[in-house]
Design a protein that fits this description.
The complex is a heterodimer. Chain A has ten helices and no strands. By secondary structure, chain A is an all-alpha fold. Chain A has two domains: 107 residues, Rna Polymerase Sigma Factor, Chain: A (Orthogonal Bundle), CATH 1.10.1740.10; 67 residues, Arc Repressor Mutant, subunit A (Orthogonal Bundle). Chain A is globular. Chain B folds into two domains: 65 residues; 64 residues, no CATH class. Helices cover 56% and strands 0% of the residues of chain B. Chain B is rod-shaped. The chains are: A mainly alpha, B mainly alpha. Chains A and B meet through helix 2, helix 3, helix 7 and helix 10 of A and helix 1 and helix 2 of B.
Chain lengths: 174, 156
């Protein structure tokens, strides 16, 4: 269902029906966006639920001036950053330690684990930019709307992040 | 060497997995019916608050009135006590003329008479009896131990 059709449902007051469609269309993308940041499945599930609650509550007041998916990503990103701030002690652990409790939901090999380690060493906002661009290939213009940062700043941030990750990855795989 | 760089397409693959049927569960949790239920619960919560709010406002108004009344009462009582003390002290300050220690009398007035005091018979005398007693031939009022008289009501 397109944004236009979802908007029509909302304008008719059929928010529940519209939201069911929103969840069906976007929950997977939102989940992976969150999961790459928090790593653990349980934490990702919690953050996703909070994101969906906020989206459901905010849907009636959404003005449809931006794309629905950028709005949803913005909510998810805020929820992720809040989670990371609240759980600083936990997120300071190495990827190895954090994945230990979640081994059944990580199927990556050594090089993929090393990449996750390198990404986790980035500051949280740079990590967001890197994940969104490298894995999800989101356009800078959309990222700009989601993160509220200029395209130029995002390009610079991604360039720094890419260089750092590349360097760390080489060191880890020596 | 190239597979150790970010250009390696394998690195873009998702290494994470989820429990089986996880996304279906998420969708079921947020299905139209479930969302409707959540909305109803939320509305119920709102309705309850809507009913409770006037009662809370009334209780708050009563608490405020009670608090103001209590403050007012304390202020008035305090002023009255101060006035009484001043008046009593001014009356009692005239007593040294009668050979009384006004501080002692004042303390006794406040504390009450001791139960074993033998001079209580004086309390039963009215002012005429007292005058008769004082006019008794051979009685010199200067020798009267007025400190024995505790009840100020019998004094002029």
């Amino acid at each position: 269902m397109s944004d236009k059709e979802l908007r029509e449902l909302c304008e008719e007051g059929l928010y529940n029906q519209a939201f069911e469609e929103v969840v069906r269309q976007y929950s997977r993308r939102l989940y992976w966006h969150i999961r790459k940041m928090v790593l653990s499945h349980d934490d990702a599930d919690d953050v996703l639920q909070n994101t969906l609650i906020k989206a459901w509550t905010g849907l009636p007041s959404f003005r449809w001036k931006s794309q629905l998916f950028t709005w949803l990503y913005r909510i998810a990103t805020n929820e992720v950053l809040t989670f990371l701030k609240k759980n600083k002690a936990y997120t300071n652990l190495s990827v190895e330690e954090r994945l230990e409790a979640d081994t059944s939901y990580f199927s990556g090999d050594q090089i993929q684990k090393a990449l996750q380690e390198a990404i986790q060493r980035l500051p949280s906002k740079q990590r967001l930019v890197f994940n969104m661009r490298y894995f999800d290939e989101i356009k800078y213009e959309d990222m700009s709307q989601i993160l509220g940062t200029s395209v130029g700043a995002l390009k610079a941030s991604y360039h720094h992040a890419y260089t750092k990750v590349q360097k760390t990855l080489r060191e880890l795989l020596l | 060497m190239s597979n150790k760089t970010l250009n390696n397409p394998h690195l873009k693959e998702n290494p994470f997995t989820v429990p089986e049927g996880y996304f279906e569960q998420v969708e079921a949790r947020w299905s139209s019916a479930a969302v409707q239920e959540k909305a109803t619960d939320k509305e119920k919560g709102r309705s309850f608050m809507r009913l409770l709010l006037p009662q809370l406002q009334l209780a708050a108004a009563f608490a405020l009135l009670f608090g103001l009344g209590y403050l007012l009462m304390i202020t008035i009582t305090k002023g009255k006590t101060d006035t009484l003390q001043t008046e009593e002290l001014s009356i009692l300050s005239e007593w040294p003329y009668w050979g009384l220690d006004h501080r002692k009398v004042y303390d006794l007035v406040l504390e009450g008479l001791p139960e074993d005091d033998e001079s209580h018979f004086l309390l039963d005398m009215d002012i005429e009896d007292l005058m008769d007693y004082m006019n008794y031939p051979g009685f010199d009022p200067v020798h009267l131990d007025l400190n024995l008289i505790y009840d100020v009501r019998h004094l002029p």
